[in-house]
Write a structure and sequence with these properties.
Elements: H1 2-40, H2 44-57, H3 62-74, H4 78-89, H5 95-111
Length: 117
């Protein structure tokens, strides 16, 4: 009987660690959808915390990195946008997207304080 209780306790403990990990994709997607709606409405300041949360919950998936960088760019948070565009480029996007991101980073670097970027 004690072994059964112990096995149940261990199982519940393991499940408690697994459940948050299982919830992340849905939460990340919810945050990304909320952020995207706000971004499309040009409510960039309101969208930013949702993009940050999606970025954290998605374990830094390329599409969330790119979306966060775009929001930061819209808010003229050039330093953060350059950092996140650089991170995005490290994920190996296709050539067309990589060229676009390089062009945007160049513009941000040119308009920003080179010492900060």
């Amino acid at each position: 009987m004690r072994e059964d209780v112990r096995a149940l306790a261990v199982g519940l403990l393991l499940l408690s660690f697994a459940l948050p990990a299982l919830a992340k994709p849905n939460e990340s997607g919810d945050e990304l959808r909320a952020a995207s709606k706000l971004f499309e409405a040009k409510e960039y300041r309101a969208a930013l915390p949702h993009f940050v949360r999606a970025y954290e919950l998605s374990e830094r998936k390329p599409e969330t990195i790119f979306a966060l960088a775009q929001c930061e760019r819209a808010l003229r948070m050039d330093h953060s946008a350059v950092v996140h565009f650089r991170e995005y480029l490290k994920t190996g996007p296709d050539e067309t997207r990589a060229a676009e991101v390089h062009a945007v980073r160049t513009v941000l670097l040119e308009r920003g304080d080179p010492g900060r970027l």
